[in-house]
Amino acid sequence: MNVRFGIIGLGGISNRFASVLNTVEGVELAAVASSDEARAVEFAKKHHASRASKSYTDLLEDKGVDVVYIGLTHNFHYDIIKLCLTYGKGVICEKPMTLREKDAQELAALAKDKNVLLMEAMWSRFTPAFIKAKEWVNSGKIGRIKLIHASFCFNFPFDPSHRLFNPALAGGSLYDAGVYPIEFTTGILGENPKQVSGFASFCETGVDDYAAFTMSFESGTLASLSCGITAVTNRDVHIYGTDGHIIVYDFLGARKCELLDNDNNLIERFETSFDDGFIFEIEHFADLFRNGKTESDVMPLKDSIACAGVFDELMRSWKQN
User: Fold this and answer.
1) What is the pLDDT of residues 104-134, one digit of tens each?
2) Ordered alpha helix ranges (H), 90-198
3) Helices and strands of the chain, counted as H and E runs
4) Is 212 helix (H, G, I), strand (E, B) or coil?
5) How far apart are CA 295 and CA 111, in angstroms?
């Protein structure tokens, strides 16, 4: 059966999602909704949606919509996810799922109570190169994991009204960029951190524009992570073990990873190609819905909850400083 998607929030990320959705077999774009009805009509025409809904509620009351993709800014995620779940619609929400741990816990409990599918749209976890790197880790190819180094930092021109710099829209580097190295690390390890600490710099609007932080795990692994929106860093992830290391190149949309021994000799290389990595998370989410699943094994809710917990701890410590 075709899985019928609705989209709420029609900004740049939703345009990308809709474009990829239209290339996936077994799914269709049934309806779209925006706070601006004219925008919804334009988006529906551009992406061949069956309907432009008059409002978010109108979309959620539509029996022709099975699941909803939420592409709104971070500050709206909690409220709209809760609304979708209340209507019994499966949800795939852009990262981060929530900004606070207690909100993530509440939504996970609600999804369980309603027996409805809920997943954070962490697309980088579904790329073949990520899956291969995790396979190498799980099979012990580099021994015990001791350190993961990951960074996602880009340079965006300062604009106090833009969502990245606007505190009213949950701006800042941690929420927008930090979620990626955090959830790459927890995904690779299959483990959530027991402790986190770090530092940040802040821009004129008061949001963090750069951050460096560490996470420690019960297994003994450490992670050295950074995120930023005012300078660019290298995006290759290094995973160091007792018997070698793994490099995942350009980890957000990884197309290549390498396995090396302790003398830096190449043992194995994995390479693949694709147009847009969103396709893998869309296919996975659609399969979950078809099979009656309420949670992903690749992006489980416990990891979204743990990530929000990292946000809480870092934000709390930065305010104290």
Assistant:
1) 999 999 999 999 999 999 999 999 999 999 9
2) 101-114, 128-138, 173, 179-189
3) 10, 14
4) strand
5) 9
Per-residue model confidence (pLDDT) at position 1 = 78
- Taking the C-alpha atoms of residue 282 and residue 67, their distance in angstroms, rounded to an integer, is 11
What is the distance between the alpha carbons of residues 59 and 52, in angstroms, rounded to a whole number? 8
266, burial (CB in 10 Å: exposed 0-12, middle 13-18, buried 19+): exposed
3-state SS, 247-293, equals EEECHHHCCEEEEECCCCCEEEEEECCCCCCHHHHHHHHHHHHHCCC
State how far Cα 12 lies from the chain centre. Answer: 16
3-state secondary structure of 128: helix
Cis peptide leading into residue 96 (ω within 30°): yes
Q: Tens digit of pLDDT for each residue in 204-252?
A: 999 999 999 999 999 999 999 999 999 999 999 999 999 999 999 999 9
In this predicted structure, what is the pLDDT of residue 321? 55
Residues 127-167: tens digit of each pLDDT:
999 999 999 999 999 999 999 999 999 999 999 999 999 99
Distance CA 149, CA 226 (A): 9
Note whether 15 and 45 are within 8 A (CB). Answer: no
pLDDT above 70: residue 320? no
- Cα angle 97-98-101, degrees, rounded to a multiple of 5: 125
Nearest to 254 by CA among 128, 72, 135, 156: 128
CA 211/CA 201 separation, integer angstroms: 6
Contact 281, 266 (CB under 8 A): no
